Amino acid sequence: MNGNKLALAFAMTICFSAAPEVRAQDASTYTVAQGDDIPKIVKKLKYKDVTESQMYFAVVQKNISAFPVNSVERVTPGMKLEIPSQADVKAVDVKKADEYMANLRKAEGIYSEGVAAEKAGNMQGAVEKYLAAAKIGHAVAAQKLGQLYDKGVTKTLSRDLQESITYYQKARERGREIKGPDSRAPQPAK
Which of 8, 59, 73, 154 sits 20 to 30 Å CA-CA off 98? Predict the structure, then answer.
């Protein structure tokens, strides 16, 4: 599968579903089902007076912290995602949504290549892909880099807490929730 098809397939793995009787304007959550993907669901839930890009953008932004870091699968069956209101979706600037979607497709493809490289044991290739995806604005890639720099578990990246903080902050700025380093908190003397 070439990179563009892989990127599209990867982007389409962000999936969720709900009971068929739930109409888009009434939905507040959607439960991930086996076999659904984001483009199908966005088409199914899209409000009549918004574009698919606006709907996609709003759904992704509303749920960005729910997407896992260590997998190309953004959602898993049973996961509950929030569906933005019609007013929230309509408020998304169409040009911004279109640009976001173009960048997301590109960054998702690069990130998925990084995940594949990491699974194949090519950490140097994986880090290069994660860096490229984060540079485009991929929040999950930025979080992944934060983790890699934080833990220093690769031969490619040495442990660098300053770089870790930088990438965690980029992920936060893009909507990811990054929990604090509780395990590093100073322990009281006994």
Answer: 73
Q: Among candidates 47, 36, 44, 32, which has minimal Cα distance to 12?
A: 36
**Tokens 């599968």 belong to residue:** 1
pTM above 0.70, yes or no: no
- Tell me the pLDDT tens digit for each residue of 78-102: 888 899 999 999 999 999 999 988 9
User: Can you spell out the DSSP letters for the chain?
Assistant: --HHHHHHHHHTT---B--TT--GGG-SEEE--TT--HHHHHHHH--TTS-HHHHHHHHHHHHGGGS-SSSS----TT-EEE---HHHHHTS-HHHHHHHHHHHHHHHHHHHHHHHHHHTT-HHHHHHHHHHHHHHT-HHHHHHHHHHHHH--SSSS---HHHHHHHHHHHHHTT------GGGSPPPP-
Give the angle 151-122-15 at the CA atoms, nearest 5°: 80
CA-based torsion, 70, 107, 97, 37: positive or negative: negative
67 phi, psi to nearest 5 deg: -80, 130
